[in-house]
Every structure is written in structure tokens, then in C-alpha cells.
Amino acid sequence: MIKKFPYVYSQLTRHGTTVWYFRRGKTCKRIKAPIGSSKFKEEYIEALTGGAVEASSVVIHKGTLKWLINQYQHSNVFNTLSANSRRNYNGHLKRLIEKRGSLPLHKVTQSFIQNSVDHRSNKVASSVLFLATMRGLYKWAVERNLVKSDPTVGVKTPKLKTKGFATWTIEQIEQFRKYHPIGTKARLAMEMMLFLGLRRSDVMRVGAQHIKDGVFSIQTKKTGTQVTIPIAGTLQKCIEATRCTGEVLLSSPSGKKYASEESFGIWFKNQCKKADLPNQCTAHGLRKAGATIMANAGVSSHELMAMYGWSKLSMAEVYTKEADKKKLSSNAIKALSKSI
């Protein structure tokens, strides 16, 4: 592999000619242009980012926003992010290069970032993701002394008007169970996400190697956190009753691993439709349901962090504080009833 071009490998053909390939994960693409040429760089960036790049855009001037982004996209820090995060970040970075790539780095100020966020305020989720992208870029840049300060510090985003993915109700869980009996892949998928608190990207990877002596353990794909959880009796029954072949418990209808978390999500969404559940019932909503049920049962914030692999206490407190509100309001009503 060439250090200047990560993921590029040479191969000698039967005719004695050296050819070059871009290989990352399941992606393998031949780079036909001569190595070191501007066309080679163009094809390389296209393979790296997953999109076509104009030839003129390959010219990169040091000290510009485009130069900094290019350095970041070639870094190990960026390329060890999850595929989903890279895809989302690349979308914003590509548009930023197209519009303001030639901007000198000293002109990328807090005001510039705040204005960019405000410009996206009609799409709150987009503004939040844009700021997360820029924070990742500048955290990396500051740590490597490529810039003197982080212009994202103090930048604020508009508040999300929704609470995100809808949380499954107990009734919806039971409705799914009624339609998909124990022994089906759909039932196993639902119980695994509910009892193990896994994201789509993790539940589709679970195999026998992750279970030992009644305990489940896996390193999560998104955060890299090691999660270890005892397997509940309900889930154990589903695992034992479901016929599983291959290296994962939840293989696709063709018997192979799901190609992506999106393809797994589409399959699970179809299982929800078969059970006549509303459109808002998603895989992530099950994860929220499990956290909500446990918080209402008195599970602490730190216990939820261990269960779900969260690195920030604030994530767990979203659920425990809501549960505390219900308990406090219930106690207040009881006190009022006794007083009058």
C-alpha cells in the first residue's frame, strides 16, 4: 500500500505490467491512469469519496479549506469512522469544497461556521450534522497543529423540534410478537434489539462467537465500545428455537450476511409492516423502547450506559430524567390527594 494514497495496491499482471487498485472493505476499483498523474489523483479521490470529481477540483492549494479537508479525508482518523459516518460527513465536505474550497483557513472563523449553520436552519438535522462534521474536522486539525484554533467552539445549532425515532410501546411489541412467533428470524431480530440494545449495524453482525456461558459481548461498530450483557431467558429461548446457518444469527433470506445496515433495516421494516405496525416503528425505536422500559423500572444512568455502550452520561439521562419526572409527578399527586 502506498502511504501517499491509502488503500491503493499494486498488482503485477501476467504480461509483467504493474496495475493499481483501490481496495477498502468490499470496494475494489481499478485506477487506470498512470500513478502520480493528475488523472490518477482524480480517480483516487472518486474511489475514496464514492462520487465523481471534476478534474479542476484535484488542484489543491495548501492553506485553503479544500486542502485541510483533503488532508482529513486521507487520515486514519477519518477512515476509521463507520461507513455511515464517512458517507454523511463526505456529503457536507464535498458541498463545502464546491462552494468555499478556495477560502484561506484564517478566514474560517466562528462567525463563518455559525452563518453556515444558520443557513441550514430550515433543515435542523442537516445543520446539526454539518456542525458535527466541522467539529470532527477541526478537532483533528487542532491536534495536529494544522490550525491554531477551533472555529466551531461556541457555535450553536437550532433545537430539534422532534424527539427523533418513535419509541415502541409495550402494545406494539406484543403485536409484533403475536404475528412473528418464536423460531422466526423476525422474532429473533426484534428480541435481540430489545434485550441487547443493539443498533442495526451491530445486530446484523452477531454470531455464536459473541455468546459464551449465557453472556453476550461485542465491540460496537459506531463507538468501538465493548458491551457485555447477560442474555435474558426470553431471548435465550428465541436463539435456541431459531435455525441459524453461517457465521451470523440473522442471515438474509438468501442465507448470506446482510450487505449493509440499510439492507437489514429495509428487511426489518418489512417485518413490521407484515405485523401491521405503523410506519414510525423502526429498529432504532426498539432500542429506545428498551431504554425507556428499564429507566421506568429504576435502572440507573450508569447501568444504561453500560448496557447501550454510550460514552456520555447525558445520553442515559435523557431516559432516567424522564422516568424521574413521572415518579415525582405521581408522588406530588398522592401528596395533594392526602392533603385535601
From TrEMBL:
One of its GO terms (biological process) is DNA recombination. One of its GO terms (molecular function) is DNA binding. The lineage of its organism: Bacteria, Pseudomonadati, Pseudomonadota, Alphaproteobacteria, Hyphomicrobiales. InterPro entries: CB, DNA_brk_join_enz, Integrase-like_cat_sf, Integrase_catalytic, Integrase_recombinase_N, Integrase_SAM-like_N, Phage_Integrase. Belongs to the 'phage' integrase family. Residues 63-142 form the Core-binding (CB) domain. The keyword DNA-binding applies. The keyword Metal-binding does not apply. This is Integrase. Keywords: DNA integration, DNA recombination, DNA-binding. Coiled coil: none annotated. It comes from Candidatus Liberibacter solanacearum. Residues 163-333 form the Tyr recombinase domain. SUPFAM superfamilies: DNA breaking-rejoining enzymes (SSF56349). Pfam families: Phage_int_SAM_1, Phage_integrase.
